[in-house]
Fold:
Amino acid sequence: MVVVFVVFPGRRRSRPKGRQAAATLPVPAGRRRRTAAEASEHARAVFATLREAVGDEEYFDVTAQLPPDYGVLLPGP
Structure:
């Protein structure tokens, strides 16, 4: 199973009661920050790989639940 988390600045959701916040991991030394264009390109590659891995029907089921903002990251038909 492939799990993808894409976080856009300004899009926050409250946690359900009883759930803890996710731990943040430090960025290893020597790693550079990505530009927004690079991050978008990498996210598109992840979605394309996901589509190949799970097939069109499952891919549609997953992407249909995403907010419209994610449309720019999804590969075309």
In short: The first helix runs from residue 36 to 54. The radius of gyration is 15 Å. The CA atoms of residues 4 and 46 lie 8 Å apart.
